[in-house]
Amino acid sequence: METSSFISATVLLILVTDPLGNIPLFVGLLKQVDAAKRRRIIIREVFLAFLILLFFLLFGSRVLEVMHLTETSLGIAGGVILFLIALKMIFPHPEGAFAHQVKGEPFLVPLAIPFIAGPSAIATVLLLVSREPDRMWEWIGALTVAMLVSAVVLGFAERIAAFLGEQVTMAFERLMGLILTAISIEMLLAGIEKFLRKLNAGASV
């Protein structure tokens, strides 16, 4: 196992699942739920998100084949999605990711999907497995660590929000957005470079 790749994949998955950014969303949506049930709900939603992302990780290559998608198009699309997510992290909407309120106990939507296992996270796991499918256990390990981080952070969401305060939480959110912006640009450039190479190779034939 190459430690650098494992660590970079773990950091990337933590960034795209964005546990710190999800703190105010989870706190707001779970206010109406009994305090004794909140942690159980969080663990359940993180586990559901893990299963969804694991499905795309294990069967991502087949999904790409069925949909006739190439690694180049996936890399460019993933970069665009990450860039849009990063912009929302840097310039958050005043109403949040969802303007409507969920009545009752939330299940699967919107906590597991799309707050944790959103389009950016799905695109990221698909990209990992399409580039290096032979390192599946590394990607599963990275996903597991990222989900554990989300579970811990969101499990103590109220305490973290009270300790850090709204301003510090927003500062962390925007810092992660800046990092994610750089990662998305790298993905875009890599995808465009591969596309141009294919064009040159086709023209030279």
What does this structure look like?
There is one protein chain. With 205 residues, this protein is an all-alpha fold. 80% of the residues lie in helices and 0% in strands. Helix 3 (35-66) crosses helix 6 (119-131). It is globular, with a radius of gyration of 18 Å. The termini are far apart. The model has no long low-confidence stretch (mean pLDDT 82).
Give a short overview:
80% of the residues lie in helices and 0% in strands. With 205 residues, the chain is mainly α.
Itemize the secondary structure elements and their pairings.
Elements: H1 3-17, H2 19-29, H3 35-66, H4 71-90, H5 111-116, H6 119-131, H7 136-155, H8 157-204
SSE order? HHHHHHHH
Class from helix and strand fractions: mainly alpha
What oligomeric state is this? Answer: single chain
Rough outline: globular
pLDDT < 50 runs, ≥5 residues: none
Major β-sheet, in short?
none
Helical fraction = over 70%
Question: What integer is the average pLDDT?
Answer: 82
Please give the radius of gyration in angstroms. Answer: 18 Å
SS summary, helix count: 8
Per DSSP E runs of 2 or more residues, the count of β-strands stands at 0
- The end-to-end span amounts to 38 Å
Strand coverage percent? under 5%
